[in-house]
Write a structure and sequence with these properties.
The complex is a heterodimer of chains A (109) and B (148). Chain A is mainly β. Chain A is built from no helices and eight strands. Chain B is an alpha+beta fold. The relative contact order of chain B is 0.22. The chains are: A mainly beta (109), B alpha+beta (148). At the A-B interface, β5 and β6 of A face α2, β6 and β7 of B. Chain B: It comes from Paracoccus gahaiensis.
Chain lengths: 109, 148
């Protein structure tokens, strides 16, 4: 069970129509790989974020499947097109069923 | 936990290569759980289609990673619908799969990954015409990031 999971997303507040913007996301999460042992020699069970999606006004930007090889505190950087004023929605899916969400509004002037 | 003869052999083989790293013990555990091999993952991704080497997919990774726990990498494949990343020498070879939607400005993504040891990181992109291209980048790892 992951604790203190906190998503951080950097998105520009304004953009011009169809501008390409770079989005950076980071979420604090241990991404326990299921390979490590505790001090008693027992395997620590895998507990990772296994999926990360980004949508803008309901349209898909990026859908990624994550494996244990993704580092602690998963970081992603990618480019998105902004056709109109709207909202980016970021969703992270944890192995334990938790869903972490964040949303950012972008004004198109 | 069941320890198969094969698992023990595999573990001792990796022990020979890895000296005293606790990785060998971990490899043995990984053998107990059903883990897809790199080839199986590639076959599932491509559906058995031919994969050609090409520069339609670009993989940027450091030549030397001092810390295998966070290796910054980025992939780009113009017009690709999906990109699969694999690190075959990791205990679980899968790294990530990116699917790009209509609002992705570039079919590119950057992230940080774990590498257990020096190896080739492989990127396979599914291009717009349905064909698959592959590229690889060798990363030398000083300290393995085997989940630790």
């Amino acid at each position: 069970m992951a604790e203190n999971v906190k998503p951080r997303v950097r998105v520009p507040k304004t953009a011009s129509k169809d501008e390409v913007i770079t989005i950076k996301t980071l979420i604090s999460h241990p991404m326990e790989s299921g390979q490590r042992k505790d001090k008693d020699g027992k395997t620590i069970p895998r507990s990772i974020i296994n999926r990360f999606t980004v949508e803008f006004n309901g349209q898909l930007v990026l859908d990624s499947t994550l494996e244990p090889a993704i580092s602690t505190n998963p970081y992603f950087e990618f480019d998105a097109k902004v056709p109109e004023t709207g909202e980016f929605k970021f969703t992270w899916y944890d192995d334990d069923g938790s869903i972490y969400e964040d949303a950012h509004q972008v004004e198109v002037s | 936990m069941l320890i198969s003869r094969r698992g023990v052999l595999a573990a001792s083989a990796s022990l020979a290569g890895l000296a005293l790293l606790p990785m060998a013990v971990r490899a043995q555990d990984a053998a107990a759980a059903p883990v897809q091999t790199a080839d199986e993952m590639i076959a599932e991704f491509t559906g058995g289609a031919d994969v050609t080497e090409g520069d339609a997919v670009k993989l940027t990774a450091p030549e030397i990673a001092e810390n295998g726990n966070t290796v910054p990498i980025s992939v780009e494949a113009a017009g690709a619908s999906e990109i699969l990343l694999i690190a075959a020498e990791n205990p679980t070879p899968g790294v990530a799969k990116f699917s790009f939607g209509p609002l992705a400005a570039k079919q590119a993504a950057a992230t940080r990954i774990r590498l257990a040891k020096t190896q080739d990181v492989v990127a396979i992109a599914k291009l717009a015409d349905g064909s698959f291209v592959r590229t690889a980048a060798n990363v030398k790892v000083t300290i393995g990031g085997c989940g630790g």
